[in-house]
What we know:
The chain is an all-beta fold. It has strands at 12-19, 23-29, 39-45, 53-54, 58-60, 66-71, 81-88, 97-101, 113-120, 125-131.
Amino acid sequence: PVSAGMKGSAIENFSCVIYNIFLMNCTWQAGRDAPADTQYFLYWQNSRDEEEMECQLYIKDENCRNVGCIFQNVSIGMEKAYFLVNGSSKDSLIQFYDEYIDLYKIEKLMPPSNITVNCDEIKSDCIIQWQRPQISHSSKDMCFKYEINIKYK
């Protein structure tokens, strides 16, 4: 359905990223035609079984307008998460913005840990080993691709 409200008042450039295994940061820009007093509010639902929650920690711009949110203790489920950003203004109705997102697709992976390098000068070779990064959505070993950049000094 088309959102009621003033055309151009809905947020733009909505994006979220999950980092450090359980933190999620969502950001947006105010609608280009939104009145100056417009304030935005973010709600999200991790799955149909969970309750919709409002952001508890908003990121504000220089005009104290909500332009983002930081979520803690985020867990990635099997379903797409639902995000809704609505707005209010004393001057006019504000259009809402909503989107379904697969959370595993927006996770920024941690670097590998416990990296060790053992070189054999006689054979002129090195063995490099590491542990795969921790990820929030599974404890199973997944298919990872790694890029190794070796610089000789």
